[in-house]
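ok so i was messing around last nite and threw this chain in just to see what happens. nothing serious, just curious
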Amino acid sequence: MPAYLHWTRKGIKRTDLALELDPTEKGMLSYTLGQAMCQVFAEHLLSVRFLMHVSRYADAYGLTFPPGQSRADFFGSRYSGTWVVAEAKGRSGRLDKETRQAMEAQKRTVKTVSGQVPEISYASAVDFPSRGGTMRLTAIDPEEAEPGAIDLHVNLDQFALAYYTPFLDAFANQQPQLLGDYVVAGFESVRVTLGLLAPVLQRIERAVYLDDTSGLYRDVTRLLDRHTTRFTRETATLFTDGTLFAADWNHRPDLLRRESPQPDAEQMRRLHEFYQVVDRQDDPSSEESLREEDWYGRDLTQATSDLPGIFPPADVAD
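result:
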């Protein structure tokens, strides 16, 4: 991201390197930005808690679509329990008149999700109105469904499992550690740390181990409702779906070891305290005996270092 984008007070701009990409490379960058900003828009402006690519659910549970049938890119549930459907577009230049008119004329491609009519169905497009200008996002909510709009037959419990499965896959190939109330794993090659709130991971692992997803969505949302009230703190690391993401893309690889001193014991104490979001006094699940299939009950070590974006603890207030 630092290679192609930089942040200013006015907004996100492309770097000189991004401006010199060939058309295919610009297309890939625009596609990625379109997908990412569609999700940011959903989270911050539409109160969407879980937004997932349709293909992620379709691939996991054999959901098929009629040949040649258009469909939206994402679907997800809001805090209210209603559904949102979204289609993402990206442009390396200005959003032209024809594309905007097509978005305005576009019909809803998903008629129902889990038997419910989506409360919001929108198309969003990211573009750059001028060569050196800031990124812009345009979102349009069509009112009518097209005649061939599809029904997404979604099981809420399977939806929850598909949503969090990438974290299970990530932890399966790493040695996870405990950071406060999060299970985390560092990926040194890409300088990224991923994490998931331990009680949520605990519940997901239990569903996989027992091959029983019944009640999973309800339990996960209850855990999040109980524990995410402390996510109002000013940090870009924690998210309201219980996930953690941190990255360190600001240093040269050959200088990383010399520029990243090991945190001392006091810094570690503050870090673990910073990432503690579970109020033990108000958490009935903390009194339950942990089952052997739970990650949180396994012999996980306390994180001490080697978590990109977390150490050194520059984001922890005094």
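not much to say yet. Residues 286-293 have pLDDT under 50 and may be disordered.
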